Amino acid sequence: MKLFNTLTRQKEEFVPITPGEVKMYSCGPTVYNYFHVGNARPFIVFDVLRRYFEYRGYQVNFVQNFTDIDDKVIGKANEEGVDFNAIADRYIKEYYVDAEGLGVGRATYHPRATETMDAIIGIVQKLLDNGHAYVAENGDVYFRTKSFPEYGKLSHQPMEDLQAGARISVGEMKEDPMDFAVWKAAKPGEPAWDTPWGSKGRPGWHIECSAMATKYLGPTIDIHSGGLDLTFPHHENEIAQSECANGCTFANYWLHNGFLTIDNEKMSKSKGNFFMVRDAAKEFGYETIRMFMLSAHYRTPLNYSAESLEMNKASLARLYEARNNMEFRMEKAPDGVMTDEETAKLTSLSAYKQKFIDAMDDDLNTADALSAIFELTRELNAYMGAHDDATKAFLAAAHALFMELTGVLNIVQKREDKAADPDAAQIEALIAKRTEAKKNKDFAEADRIRGELADMGVTIKDTRQGVQWTRA
Ligand code: AMP
Ligand code: ZN
Q1: Helices (H), strands (E): how many in the chain?
Q2: 269 CA distance to ligand 1 centroid (A)?
């Protein structure tokens, strides 16, 4: 599998540290609010990457953190007059609600920064011990950026350019403008932790990820990912701290998703041009949002618009319809062995699986992978339409292929539980009554029953194998 590595600016063959295993860390949300559609992009695309690795037989150790202590969390807590933990607890709970809706699986670990404080303090102490960091007069601890000559290697910026652009803000006591805070001295009324070096305080954002990645995955990991905006300074600083503390490469592959835009501008909380995922989900459905994200390659910009969401909603509906059709036909189909024609058809259909794999192997090209699924669906629909007598064995094999590929992307997996529908018996009875009316050429009555079903939110479809119904 090839992945585009921001470090080398090239697509590289993925070679894991340990054969058959992947150690992956992705920067998670700062939990002071619900997350917006832009934030959802890394959550979804790296969930797909993880699923794809698992599909290819890797054992994946995936860590995605919660940044539960920072200015924004504290600000929100002060605004509401509650403890910062109450804010973090609330929005972590809400993160899981939206993540589940979007089909984003749980990571192997979801550490919170405040639960990793020992590891964070440990890594700061190491940096102090080996001279890569220093305690300033005000109690802040800064990283000595010039002590790491490779600084800038991820964002491909020469040290001189960074030096020219660096500034010291009011209240900071750095030796050099390029230095950055790994520890912030306590301010009155803010949560603070004791430290061996004496200054009570709280960690900087970058050091949290360095510590959490190392604690749960070890000093060298395979893949570190996040949104493009995190490349500098967040990931550059993570590299500097981790490599200086541990004396080894921090991450072999750095993956960054492109921006989700709106009117071709980055969607962001600060600009106010965002939609919360749950509001967008109310309008289009969670799964439509997932489908929309996968409709583009993860590194390209993707523009959010109602038209685009509607289009993806319709595409998803087509896939569901094809699946439901297959399942309905499977139920009604004759038993018996697959015909030679069916065996040949199945071989031709499995070419789409190879196409799907080739696309995913090419730097996770979900757009092309989806095309393969749509082509498979079209060919399947055509074949089923032309072969009323397709066998159960053929339909089951085609269905398994369809479910395998859509399963990797985690789309089209939802199911109406018809047996659990409280109106199921009544619906079936009405359908039987309508069939009877049609047989007696009482089309007015048949139409009336269709209307009655529609009023109940039930859509019906006449097929040569019988009547299919679904909740609208
Ligand atoms: P935050 O909670 O702001 O730290 O962001 C969580 C994740 O969302 C990070 O990986 C960000 O890079 C990513 N992110 C934020 N805005 C966007 C956007 N408009 N498009 C894509 N990714 C984004
Ligand atoms: Zn991070």
Answers
A1: 15, 15
A2: 9
Report how far apart, in Å, the C-alpha atoms of 374 and of each of 285, 346, 406 are. Answer: 20, 16, 10
| Order of strands across the sheet that contains 260-262 | 265-266, 260-262, 302-304
Question: Domain 2-257: what homologous superfamily?
Answer: HUPs (3.40.50.620)
Q: Tokens at residue 179, please? A: 């230095």
Fold of 318-409: Four Helix Bundle (Hemerythrin (Met), subunit A) (1.20.120)
Our answer on whether the CB atom of 201 is closer than 6 Å to any ligand 1 atom is no
Residue nearest atom 21 in ligand 1 by C-alpha distance: 259
Give the predicted TM-score (pTM) of the model: 0.95
**Domain boundaries, given as residue ranges, for the chain:** 2-257, 318-409, 418-471
Q: Which two three-digit tokens encode residue 339?
A: 């015909």
For the stretch 303-358, pLDDT in tens is 999 999 999 999 999 999 999 999 999 998 988 899 999 999 999 999 999 999 99
What is the Å distance from ligand 1's center to 260 Cα? 9
DSSP H or E stretch at residue 253: strand 251-257
Tell me, yes or no, if the two domains 2-257 and 318-409 fold the same way. no
Q: Are 381 and 374 in contact (CB under 8 A)?
A: no
